[in-house]
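Q: what does this look like with FE3-S4 cluster bound?
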Amino acid sequence: MDFTANNLRPLKGMGRKLFVETYGCQMNVGDTEIVVSVMQKEGYFYTENIEEADVILINTCSIRDNAEQRIWGRLGDIKHYRIQNPKLVVGIIGCMAERLKEELLKGPLAVDIVAGPDSYRSLPELIHRAEMKQKGVNVELSLTETYSEIEPVRIDHNGVSAFVSIMRGCNNFCSYCVVPYTRGRERSRDAETIVAEARSLFENGYREVTLLGQNVNSYRCGEVTFPELMRRVAEVSPLLRVRFATSHPKDMSDDLLEVMASMPNICHAIHLPAQSGSTAMLDRMNRRYTREWYLGRIAAIRRIIPDCSITTDLIAGFSGETEEEHLETLSLMREVKYDYAFMFKYSERPGTFAQRNLPDNIPDEVKTRRLQEIIALQNELGLQSNEKDVGKEFEILVEGESRRDKNQLSGRTSQNKVVVIDKGNHRKGDYVKVRITGCTQATLFGEEID
Ligand code: SAH
Ligand code: SF4
Ligand code: F3S
């Protein structure tokens, strides 16, 4: 391999090996693919084997305290690779890098470089400096960086579905949330490059793209709004499924629902985080919608896309949560009948509005009990939702072998539910029409129909 062939300048990587570990949300998964792309252009090779790495990067999450604790634990493990290989460069990138900055360069678990989510183009330079025994830090947030033209290197892929980042940052400042501080202001990526990336994925055999942002409904690039972007991506091919995450209830428009209903390859699945069922609580959370508004959006989804699945995020035990407010969350869940939910115990985050102004005053036992009640109810609702599908017909996109049984395949419905079928002559990337024959709380079982 000639490391200087492209541009006649020495590449910093010189064939050294890069290992990246990713925590947190889908945005981080997408960012890791950008990081690998940036690093490969500088002559680094990506490896899946941490033992042989010359550079280890950990792409981190700060959303809850336990997410950060896991990463501190991981840095403890990595100490031993440093002893084996004194030249090893270890870097923290992502949200925790942004939040803790120089703090990560100190103490017994010190790392060599710290790079926030908007500084990945400078990684080769930071690593180069670290190799010269200078610590490298870049945690500057940008108003414009979208890594628009960088073609992500798909590493953790099944070759069927891929994430495509369409915007970065968040302007919503929900009072409990650290994301606006770790990812900076909202900015949209150029629409042309998004459509081009989707087209290139399709041409390379991918059959599903998920458009990613913290609040995709506020996407805007010139005249192109989110519904229009969805339409353009869906037009790449009728065989390319299109999904998106996440939409904020306050911006969930009928226009988007109409586009979803009008194009068969846009999946009928909406993730609409409610956080709480109480209007007073939503106000303290600075969510900028009421319970009634939220239920109005659910009614619009049911009216315009009757077979749409609806999933959510819920937080138990935020500041001042009364028992009545908690019961309102449970009643909202029953009313919406969520297909699936991500459920969390409130974790106070330094620097947020809530940490400065709203006491974290719900005892941990109460938070835990409320979360358990939310989980128990969702388990029931999830099972009911699956039971309702038994006997119905769906088209699934096959993603690969079932984890439990190599003679079976697993795929997803448009509603994003996992269906397991017998292998037959199918392979991943195929569309198969199935009838649902049975279910558990987590999985549907189906048989092929013609
Ligand atoms: N932008 C997305 C969510 C990103 S974070 C949205 O607004 O929908 C994913 C989820 O983590 C949030 O929806 C929320 O439920 C949860 N979360 C965020 N901050 C939290 C905190 N401090 N404690 C507990 N859960 C939190
Ligand atoms: Fe956080 Fe709210 Fe932005 Fe979601 S919308 S990332 S919860 S501030
Ligand atoms: Fe975590 Fe940052 Fe995503 S805090 S949830 S990795 S945006």
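Confidence is low (pLDDT under 50) at residues 1-5. Residues 170, 172-174, 177, 179-180, 214-215, 248 surround iron/sulfur cluster (ligand 2) (CB under 6 Å).
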